[in-house]
Design brief:
Mean pLDDT is 86; it is low at 171-183. This protein has 2 domains: 4-177, no CATH class; 188-306, no CATH class. It is built from 14 helices and 9 strands. The strands form 4 sheets. Strands 1-3-2 form a 3-stranded antiparallel β-sheet. A two-stranded antiparallel ribbon has the order 4-5. By secondary structure, it is mainly α. Bound molecules: zinc ion.
Amino acid sequence: MKSEIEVLDAFENIRRAQRAGAYAPHKPLLILLALARVQHGEPRLVEFTAVDEMLKQLLAEFGPSSAAKSRHYPFWHLATDGGGALWELTGPREFLKRPAGVTPTVTELRTHHIKGGFPFDIDDALRHVPGLLEAVASRVLDAYFPLTLHADIAASLGLDLDGPIEVREARPLTTVDAIGQRRRRDSGFRERVLRAYEYRCCVCGFDLRIGLTPAGLEAAHIQWHHVGGPDIEPNGLSLCALHHKLFDLGAFTVEPSGHRVVFSQHAISGDRGMAGELQFHGRAIYAPQHRDFLPAHEFLAWNVKNVFKAPARRPIAATPRARR
Ligand SMILES: [Zn+2]
């Protein structure tokens, strides 16, 4: 069985191969899905067909637009990453012998009953080292997704991040935290961004305080911190908790040239329609107190490309009253 350190290293090596600034949720979502299967005591290998629908849904929810179309890529390519240390494929020998770079289609993976999963030594350690699976899952979430989405992703997968209580109490995760160089968060970022926007949500103007302390207000990274977004005001937006979450989900973005809030066509507001969340569509954000703090074009462009769920809603024209 592999040691805890070896297992964590194997996952860490996959992350390091990621291009700086690139955001592709495919691999981490497949890994998290596979971890959830192990946690639920399911067999080591699974047919692509059995997870296809789930991958599609996860990518539609947590990936940028059109990500779901390439949902089968990591199922195939993860087997060659890190020398095959993390993913194993089984199926007809002829089929598996094709060059690694030639991605099979979804239909091919289905008809050849291709199965994938963690190699035996990794799978075994994940099942038997207390707390290891939860530590790996937390690190994958930290490395690829903003904190606002962690609980939602885990819930979609039925993944329990805390693990059994007796393990948590018996085993502080210090050994795990000591491994790998995570970028430290700049704790001054939140304060500087909130101050730049005078302690209000730049979308809806929310500015509640409890006593003197702003409540429910957060500093969002426009280009996500874990994919290289810097801790500077032009990469930050002051948002209420709701708008922070909607922003990280790609329900809206801020358009780079005019700083207008643009909602996705996928964001539907039910009966409340334009009286609800969508009332902010097309409006400019509340400006920060100095133009040096305005969101920078390059970071907004990154967000539009990597997070926003295109296509954008059209500009609002004068419209007749919505049907009831
Ligand atoms: Zn808000």
